[in-house]
Design goal:
117 residues; globular; alpha/beta
Amino acid sequence: MPLIQVFTSAPAPAAESQQALLGDLSRLLAARFKKPERWVMTCLIPGLAMTFGGTPAPAAFVAVKNIGKMTPGDTTALSGDICDRLAAALGVARDRIYIDFADAVDYQWGWNGETFG
């Protein structure tokens, strides 16, 4: 159910580093939302053409979606944790990352030919 998608202009790190980042993000979301990691999906799309503030320096857009209600505490903590991880793993400055947090409605989230609603 929790999903994190990372779109970035930073180049793709080595395969091992990509998997380490995705695993770290997966564990982070599972812990924050108190859901089994088996339900977490992660996605990294590097090397995109992007600008932020009118410049092509490395930037990232992150989408986080979860069934349930995210609290201000959840989003504040996740924003810091995600920015720290992306800065370290991809070299994207924290002030060049936007994060969109969205609560998902259970019946609008499909899996295995059904929905969670």
